[in-house]
Amino acid sequence: MLLDVKGLRVSYRTVYGNLEAIKKVDLSIEKGESVAVVGESGCGKSTFGHAIVRLLPPNAKYEGKVNLDGKDVLALKGHELRAYRGNDVFMIFQDPLNSLNPVKRVDVQMLEAVEMRERVAGRGYDETKAYKDIVEGLTGVRMPDPEVILRRYPHELSGGQIQRVVIAMALVMKPKLLIADEPTSALDVTIQAQVMKLIGGLKKEYGMSVLFITHDMAVAYTVADKFLVMYAGELSELGPVDKVVSTPLHPYTVALVNSIPNKSRRDGELVSIPGSPPNMISPPPGCRFNPRCPKVMDICRIESPEAREKDERMVRCHLYD
Questions:
Q1: Across the 321 residues of the chain, what is the mean pLDDT of every consecutive 10-residue run?
Q2: Between 159-173 and 106-121, two packed helices, what is the crossing angle to 10 degrees?
Q3: Domains present along the chain, CATH in parentheses
Q4: What is the DSSP letter of 277?
Q5: What is the DSSP letter of 274?
Q6: Do 175 and 208 touch, CB atoms closer than 8 A?
Q7: Res 95: pLDDT
Q8: Residue 141 to residue 169: CA distance in whole angstroms
Q9: C-alpha distance from residue 83 to each of 78, 143, 208 (Å)
């Protein structure tokens, strides 16, 4: 097992009170496996990914266990934490332009990544070999004229090119886990397909594990082995992609699957989920989805359900008590 998350809780101290963004989430990822974290905006997907990388702001409090290839991530400090980021885990952010320093050329930034890799590994840094590595990295993501791209600044590149540069940096660093936080949301449909193909290729060619964060289940379906469906910071359903999509168990998962546009449905309105996600400072008692759930029962408004195993999946719902 590469990643083992047990009972992860993340809360923020705010002027309005304590905000519990993640509540007791469990997840395991094997080497070479990809898991997609899906759900509406504000459900805690990005917070979950940032918690694994330890990139949350200072007012965040962590509880539980995050273990990556034998390392206790929540206990890392200083140099150990800096070495962990980029080498053990690499994160692709939602806005590709914010991933790079705007005042440094692409080659300078990629060479810095290689230097960090060599320093952590205890090897000497050879700039000639490092330059060859970054050219190979850009070639590996199908970037035309890589040496021209390397001499440019980030603002001189398109969104798709910047995203490829960041993925190439991941190729150069060769991390054990790649976390992609909605990497296609700022790109057009054609470039989306190319980026998804590249991420899928990383998994197959390098045996890299992938945690893919998105609100688009249709996009995630192309790369994921498992779905982790989150709602209001909680695990709603976790299981193999085909089972979650074909026979969803949790009412929230059912609603998400039904809201995916289907080209065979030429008539009628698109299905939507009524209501809005709850205020995380004062979430509703019981199951957090109960105000929007079509199958709500009295116990749902009183008692929060525990995650249970059902049909090769974990599901948090009173329907399966």
A1: 95 90 94 93 92 94 95 92 89 80 94 88 86 89 89 90 86 88 74 77 81 88 92 96 95 92 65 88 93 95 94 94 81
A2: 20
A3: 3-320 (3.40.50.300)
A4: P
A5: -
A6: yes
A7: 75
A8: 10
A9: 9, 28, 18
Q: Is the pTM of this model over 0.70?
A: yes
CA-CA distance, 25 to 48, in Å (whole number)?
A: 9
pLDDT for 265 equals 54
Residue ranges of alpha helices (H) inside 54-210 are 78-87, 106-121, 127-140, 146-150, 159-173, 189-206
User: What's the one-letter identity of residue 68?
Assistant: L
C-alpha of 76 from chain center: 21
Biggest CA pair distance of the chain: 68
Six-digit token pair at 256?
């998400």
Contact 29, 35 (CB under 8 A): yes
pLDDT at 250: 97
Question: Which of 104, 213, 209 lies closest to 155, judged by CA?
Answer: 104
Cα torsion 12, 14, 18, 20: sign: negative
What does the block give as tokens for 248?
């969803």
